[in-house]
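Hello K.,

You asked for the raw outputs rather than the summary table, so here they are, unedited. I folded two proteins back to back in the same session to keep the settings identical. This is the first:
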Amino acid sequence: MKRIKNTFVPNCDNEYFVPATLFSLCKYGFPFEELPEEAKKMLLEYEEEYYKRCTKPGEKAKFPSPMFTSKAIL
């Protein structure tokens, strides 16, 4: 399982992040742009698989989605 050491979210108790937790982190407000390059790569790979499983056929997902930007409504 891929994981990355948490060196970029000081107020989080997680010592490591896996792709799914990175996805949730960004979905709920952490700026995608502030992730380290390795974490961005992990998240993009996860996102591709996530949308294959969790979207309707023919539906196009755009990443980072509006949920991953500062314009997200939380």
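The second followed immediately with the same parameters:
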Amino acid sequence: MDYLVRPSKTRRGSEYSPYNPPAVFEAIRLPNYDIARVISNHIPNEAVELTDLRAPEPLTAIPPEPLSHPPAQPSVQPSSSSLNKPSPNAGVYRWRAEKRLQAKQSQGFAHRRDTVMPQLLETAAVHKTPVNVADFPVDSSGWIAVNEPVGMQRSGRPSAAEAPRSMQEYLDAGFSIHKWNGRDPCLLADVNGHVFDLVGRPDDLGYLAAAKRAHDLMAEKSAGVVWTAKETDAHRGVNSINEGWFWSKEQCRLFWLCGGQKGIAAELRNDPDMKRIASFVSSAYAYWFPELYSTATARITKLLKELQSQVRTFPMSAFTCVAFNFGPQVSTTLHRDWTDMAGDMCAVVALGDFDPTTGGHLVLWDLRLLVEFPPGSLILFPSALISHANIPVRPGETRSSIVQYTPGAVCRFVENDFRTEKQIQESNPAEYDSVLAAKSTRWATAVQRLPTLAQLGVYTA
């Protein structure tokens, strides 16, 4: 097909072209040139490039080895016109959005607590337990719990291989079922009134729809994946991808751990539904555990300033790390996440399509409870201290989960102003003595940061 290129004119006679072409070029024939085909071939490429530009990380394959910083955003060379004046539809809007996000990250959710908490406490139930949080086994530093072998020896807890698996086996062992609708909050209190929380979920059908889409996205992204040894978590018995800020003992520095499998975790972290779930987690963390949230927010702010980075697992998250546990039927074996921060909470969101009365329960070994854990619901509890597992769901049902947490080693390194204890000892012996002295009181101080029923204004007979 032949095409003619001619200067176009408006109805008033003005030419579109900024110049007047000479007469010899007034009509040019382009034989065998299919412009429509060329345009259609380039449209998909443009869409991919735009998607990549909006993502905080490139969606190409990410190496599974640790990186000192998250993968950089794709660089874009500005056009000559953008150098003169920022586009009002791009640059200004982007700048305003960044400012709003920075303000939200700085302010957090704590400012709304006085308004929200009375409403939450109206529907909150209380379940008293016979445990004393202060008696949970913590290592000498106070940052992490004792390791699994020592913990099992002290508590008499069986190994994952020897522990019950089915609901009936747990019931036969003396456990009881804690009925929970997954929406209304329930406070689990120790003998001194210190609490951790079955948070629930927003009473919003839109949130449940977002949770379902998030589960479907995890299933879609993991379909056909061949899991490597690093992603097959033998300690927890699930296929999992972790991303976030970790501390390297070998290199004595913080690094961003990028999950493998062609950047699946990065795609999930930037999904709008995942962000909505993570935002709810952050708000619940701020409302129910204000001192822990304030400390965690200050910690991650200090960390990012030191590393000159703005990258978090989720925009509003105060946790440094996230784990995506992939189905089709996630069911962790009995374990403790003993390397997590001992005095902090771990946030677990259950996803999937299953009957929470027949499976998917959260086993809290030390409390002798099987907690019904419906899809879309959130539980905040100290996973470093309490041995936990899941009851398997029934055949044909599906379950996955999202876990947010902070390693104790990261907390220690940030608290020590990004120095190891050996470095402090060599540079400032007096400060080193103070660091050692703080170990003896750290765990007791951490327990005092946990809210009590009295502080929340909840009084029980």
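Residues 1-54 form one domain.

Happy to rerun anything if the numbers look odd on your end.

Regards,
P.
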